[in-house]
Amino acid sequence: MVRTFLRSIYTSFVTDILDVPPRLLSLMFLLLLIALPLGPLGISILYMLALANIWAIFGASWDLLVGRTGQISLGHSLFFGIGAYTTALLSKFYDLPPWVTIPLAMLLAVLAALLVGFPCLRVKGPYLALVTMAFPLMAQSIVLTYILDPITGGASGVYVSSLFPFLDPPQQALAHYFLTLFLLLVSGIILYKVANSKIGIVMVSILDDDLASKACGINVTKYKLLAFAISALFAGLAGALFAHIVGIAGPATLQLTFSFFAVILTIIGGLGTIYGPIAAAFIIMTIDRYVLARPEITILGAKILPLPFEWHDLIFMVLVLILVIKWPRGIARFTTDKLEDLSEEREIEERGPHIWKKYKRKKESTHEG
Predict the structure, then answer these.
(1) What angle do CA 265, 268, 272 make, to 5 degrees?
(2) What domains sit in the chain, N to C, each tagged with a CATH number?
(3) Torsion, CA 112, CA 253, CA 281, CA 22, rounded to 10
(4) Cα separation of 51 and 193, whole Å?
(5) C-alpha dihedral over 310, 264, 328, 305, to 10 degrees?
(6) What gap in Å lies between CA 219 and CA 197, rounded to an integer?
(7) pLDDT, tens only, 234-291
(8) Contact indicator for 147, 137 with CB cutoff of 8 Å
(9) Coil, strand or helix: which one is 298?
(10) CA–CA separation, 73 and 129 (whole Å)
(11) Rounded to two decimals, what is the model's pTM?
(12) Residue 128 to residues 17, 59, 66, 70, 206: CA-CA distances in angstroms?
């Protein structure tokens, strides 16, 4: 009985993970992330990796909204900022622990998504992008209002305690990393399951042709709002985690740069994949630390690196253009497509001789007959 159970587990593992390139890559990537802290990593590197986990959640949430329903939203930083401010204000005024404030921040982000979604769904395409872009700008103006300074902290923001204030700084960094990694794993699985479930299939039909979906009896508004809500739920989670790890929730969490960053992550990783933005978050954070912000390098007396911080956005845009031209479908999708091609070639090579021998024996028996 035990042997049968183990055989069924092995069969499921082979068919559901090893034979599916995206899942195999995700498993290898997860094992790598789990093993990273075993090396001599400093606090700053663990901090960078924890932020990469947060950006991965944020990018994957935007990918569900745009990659499945085609709703181009440039106001995703609204939900990120709501998550950050909610957990900060609840901690400041009610002294609630993070395990209470973070879920409440996620719920408030969902409520905001529903309120924003109703007027936004009346427009499509570039008009939808412009309308959604207005909401974080309005929210940023509200938190910077002089009258609300005692509550929102104005330009200084609201300071937030660490998720693990009772630990030493090295232990805090390690705990932050593993917590954000666990939440990234849970969020990624949920978003991937939703994207590939019956709900995801309906969302894709809306992406292809919403009028035809309406004609088939699908409540398009319901599913678009559902995509907004699920996307905002995880964007709010990312914002709340960001506030606790950075230590502050300020107007910067509502800036449009964060929305554009989610777009960059999705385009570089692969639109509609969910796992693409997750991989892109680690690629971009690694480039930012080890290329753009590495120790000073000079060539013939001219300073080459590090580049001024103001140039980082420009470099990211140039990077996006290069990657879009080179790999229009994204790095992650390009990699999985190559793996699928290799697996097909291997299967042909392995089965080819066997099929040829069988055909030859059949032909010989026909001639003998």
Answers:
(1) 80
(2) 42-348 (1.10.3470)
(3) -10
(4) 24
(5) 30
(6) 17
(7) 999 999 999 999 999 999 999 998 999 999 899 889 898 999 999 999 988 888 777 6
(8) no
(9) strand
(10) 5
(11) 0.86
(12) 38, 19, 12, 10, 16
CA distance 2 to 311: 60
**Residue keyed to tokens 């042997």:** 3
Would you state the structure tokens that stand for residue 242, as one six-digit string? 């960001």
Residue 313's CB is within 10 A of a number of other CB atoms, namely: 13
Bond into 306 cis (ω within 30)? yes
What would the pLDDT profile of 82-109 be if each residue is shown by its tens digit? Answer: 999 999 999 999 999 999 999 999 999 9
Tokens of 174: 């390690």
Per-residue pLDDT band for 297 (boundaries 50, 70, 90) equals very low
Query: Which neighbouring-strand residues pair with 349?
Result: none
Range from 26-40, 47-61, 111-125, 265-279 that averages highest in pLDDT: 47-61
User: How many residues appear in the chain?
Assistant: 369
d(CA 236, CA 63): 15
Chain mean position to CA 333: 14
The contacts of residue 165 (CB under 8 Å, 6+ apart) are 172
Distance in angstroms (rounded) separating the CA atoms of residues 50 and 54: 6
Q: Tell me the C-alpha distance between 153 and 150, whole Å.
A: 6
Q: Is residue 344 over pLDDT 90?
A: no
Strand, helix or coil for residue 297: strand
Beta pairing class for 248-249 and 297-299? unpaired
